[in-house]
Write a structure and sequence with these properties.
SDR_fam; oxidoreductase activity; globular; 38% helix; alpha/beta; NAD(P)-bd_dom_sf
Length: 289
Amino acid sequence: MSFPSPTKTYHQNTYEAISPSRPELSTKGKNAFISGGGTGIGASIAQSLAKSGVTNLAIMGRRTAPLEATKTDIEAANPGTKVHLYAGDITDAEATKNTLAAFAEAVGGKINILIANAGYLSDLASITETDADEWWQGFEVSVRGNFNLLRAFQPLAAKDASVIHVSTAAIHLPYMPGFSSYRASKIAATKMFEYFRSENPGMFVLQVHPGLIRTPMADKFAPAADEMGLVFDDVALPGDFVVWALSGEAKFLDGRFVHANWDVEEVEAMKGELEKDEGRFTMGLLGWY
């Protein structure tokens, strides 16, 4: 079972059109910052950006050891990429501001790419049975954390900077027990990134469902995914998709919400349709009433 898709081809692994080795997708000369960049989807995006030639790559996370391991792997395979490590928590506004400022100073220039990947899945319990602080942590990371990240990034960003928010297709799904914090916080974050785009004309902002990726966070809902017949996707898929999304080929998707599983060549063929329908591939209510 897979999510509904506007493209006939639904990818669960990476493929040639989104390969970071394509010259058209090169990020050489760019400075990129990734929150939650030490493991899982964030590490995959970091690996793919390095393969596409990104010059300076900052990865931020709460734990130093995974960051160091990812840095070692990336620089061994991609000597042209300089990896900058920052241990910290985006829920700390001052630390986040200082971290992005330190990266901008280290590279001696503006930040071209922001990947807002850090997220949190609260324990799967009902609203009345959950621990209140545990439930609210989803909002602390996805909403407050990304709020801090965007505020720290904006003054240091290139005028034509690109922002990718790693969201989730779960916000579209009907009720599943225990997901109130995760889905509500992701919906709030998605709307916040829409506002950031409107407030910063000239920047490219895209929200991406990364696919169903087996990460430590995903272990919490793996049994539910199995019950629904969902199959996990390869972790390389979101990384390579994001590289494509940052290229000129995807500029027409500015302000949209897309899935890494969708076939990009089929999506490109929809460009004319999308230009006539600003509401398609965005989050909203089904009508006004």
